[in-house]
Amino acid sequence: MGKMRRLVCIIVSLAILAACKNSEKAARQNSNTPPSEKQTETADNSSNSSSEEGKNMPENTINESALPEETKQIMEDKFTKLGFVRGVVTDYSAKSEGCKYMIETEKNGEKIVLLPQNLEAQYQKDGLKVWVKYRPIKPYVIDCKIGIPAYIEAVQPVK
Prior knowledge:
Blueprint: H1 2-32, H2 45-48, H3 52-55, H4 69-81, E1 85-91, E2 101-107, E3 110-116, E4 129-136, E5 148-158
Parallel strand pairs: 3-5
Antiparallel strand pairs: 1-2, 1-4, 2-3, 4-5
């Protein structure tokens, strides 16, 4: 009886994983479809018809301005539980010699500046708001003397 129960649990788990994988594929295919062929979405109507700001945003940007307050709070709680912090990408090249794009964030009310080792080019936009998951790394020899060296594990842009 115990073996049968385990087998059923494994099969159900595999079915759930397969369903998640298929929904991910469908979402990717939908995002690759030209906007003229997509169905209109009520939450994104303002961003699709809006100004140049929306055009400069990375493809997977979360449009927080279109979300109700409850949803924003739930989303913030989930990102925080997953180890993300809210931040802003800032171009430090004019502020300090040898510096490029940094991520400004806060922890316990204190401003923290991250020196990302691997920030992808699509996220190197001054003023871009992001959720970022990072881990501090050992300092290495560089020209920029500002910030904490960090390895970026994940970035989610926010509008």
